Amino acid sequence: MIRNILLATAALAIVTTVPAGSAPRRAAPAAPATLPASNPFAQPSTLPWQTPDFSRIKDSDYLPAIMAGMAEHKREVTAIANQSATPTFDNTLGALEKSGLLLERALLAFNAVNGANTNDALQAVDTRTSPLLAAHNDFIYLNAKLFGRVRYLRDHQAELNLNPEQARLLDVYYKQFQHAGAELPAARQVQLKAMNQRLSTLQTDFSQRLLEAANAGALHVTDASALAGLSEQQIAAAAETAKGRKLPGYVLPLQNTTQQPSLESLTSHATRQQLFEASINRAERGGANDTRNIIREIAQLRAKKAALFGYTNWADYTLYDQMAQNRQTALGFLTRLAPAVSAKQHREAEDIRALARSQGATFEVTPADWNFYTEQIRQQRYAIDSDKLKEYFEFNRVLEDGVFYAATQLYGITFRERKDIPTWSPDMRVFDVIDADGKELALFMIDPWKRDNKNGGAWMSNLVNQSYLRGTKPVIFNVENFTKPAPGQPALISWDDVTTMFHEFGHALHGMFAAQAYPTLSGTSVARDFVEFPSQFNENWALDPKILPHYAVHYRTGQRIPQDLVDKLLRARTFNQGYEVGEVLEAARLDLDWHSLPASAPMQDVDKFEATALANSGFDTADVPSRYRSSYFLHIWSNGYSAGYYAYPWTRMLGQDTFAWFQQHGGLTRANGQRYRDMILSRGNTQDYAEMYRAFAGRDPDIQPYLDYYGLSGATTAPPPPPPATPAPTERGK
Ligand SMILES: [Zn+2]
Hints:
Elements: H1 59-82, H2 89-97, H3 101-116, H4 120-141, H5 144-155, H6 157-160, H7 164-180, H8 186-216, E1 219-221, H9 232-244, E2 250-252, H10 269-280, H11 292-308, H12 314-318, H13 327-358, H14 370-382, H15 386-390, H16 395-411, E3 414-417, E4 429-434, E5 440-449, E6 459-464, E7 475-482, H17 495-512, H18 528-531, H19 533-539, H20 548-551, H21 563-572, H22 577-594, H23 606-615, H24 634-637, H25 647-664, H26 670-681, H27 689-697, H28 704-709
Parallel strand pairs: 5-7
Antiparallel strand pairs: 1-2, 3-4, 4-5, 6-7
Zinc ion binds at residues 1-2, 503, 507, 532, 535.
């Protein structure tokens, strides 16, 4: 996961993505127009690396700094736009890249603490500033004079003698303005504004109706026997939820995906089927919470908006700055995967049917039953004693002898802990990162333990952005949510946690090796279908035969992890992936099909459209339904992932192909690491991504390593036959 990466972390296009917390909010106080010199953000921090001084910053300092930062940035942008001098690269784009420093200082620190260490006061600041920051972005990209200067540069590019990074920066700015509608004739701009307003209303409506639909769609039962298989705690929680809703009996709330967690434990086929149907029909009940009329309109309006810009569909309009670049490439990726994935889906479905028959099932097995039988097969074939496994994963050892060690082997960097940098939590550790030539490269912080005031998940972000233009080096942090050890106990973490550490550190490396003049292009400010590539690639080193034995050492005995445990980890990785990978690929296909409609297409019948799209997808959608149906696919209708859901599997594909490249060239070596650092990790967004990849690998990315990683290639090692007939368990999950 990556969150809080400010897209285009630079002065422009600042996007805050901190999700709303559930804590009550109080109104933020009004802020003065100018920032007093006593505010810690008034000047760049004097700490090493300009790290924000968290020993001085108070919660009440953020709002005035952000407000003053927006005001200052507006003055700077206005001055750049209104100057009478002929546009030059430096007086326009160079000046923009140097502007907004106060706002950026305040926002980077604010987003870090609001995500990892929040409270009511910080959340109130977030509520207050989010819409203002969106308007601030519009102020820049809808500024006609500013666009005029950028267009002048574009028209005179041949005379400007730009270096490749400057040419890329001009291209990025120009297209962002163009994409916002700056180049459209006035009449079309009027149409565009009306469309944007309508789309914004529809998107908000969609998410609100969906929230209601999910609440109302929860499964309600009055007889506890229907819930057989759930643990006592789960049944008690269901009773509590019912009480909260003033209902008799029990309520199982819905989570956002098609599959529901309880489906793996419920022993009654009838209850499973009811819960599953409650899930897939949540937003299709014909009442006030039905989302189908909204999404038909969104789909059509997006197609019309794309047409205003001369694109044949929304996917092509929106993928312009991605690695895939257009609908055809993204669709081709999904289509090429379909035969191998659907074959695995069919094999898994056969396993499940055989197990159900062996247990005397008299019903036809449906997707509602999938996780119930899958979980039994997993227990029998791949059961790993996770407590025993944890004894080999002590947090500090994983960090220093695993994550850091792999980076030293590959990239030559070393780490020196320092205790003098203030942080937002005493849980954190801070390191100078020293380059192979002995020079200071970056500062790295890690905040590992779960706290009540920390958002869920794990993420990476910057506290200071790298820029040669500004003379700043990267200050990077990773946040995780691991269970904190009791005082005096060893900090043992799970295998999932280990993988997460390598993942987030992959993002950190992408940020630390940044080598750009211009912050807009620096480090992890890259496309959605590229940003998860370095992180997913880095996960692979956790299991590397040179890395794993170096860190996976028993915390008490000092013995290396036994090979049979390692083998189990490897084998478990491919289990049930026809389902888990397939449901994501199917959702990606559904997303792309909705966003392939031409402007001339009539409003669609949602159910028919979805059925056709899935039937044409080439996946086994009868056994493995899409992870989201259209009517509750929040990512694509209101969360900014329209035509972009494919990015999740796409970046995994890049990560696995790169790992295969390493294996073909000798694996974990300094030479391989240096090449990858030079050609990918240090490049930010300074090059077309496909060209960048081709330069590194010597070819286009290949899907085969991705299929192999998940055991999706046809001729994988056959799993053992289904387990012998056993009575269905009734007391699971205790
Ligand atoms: Zn990530």
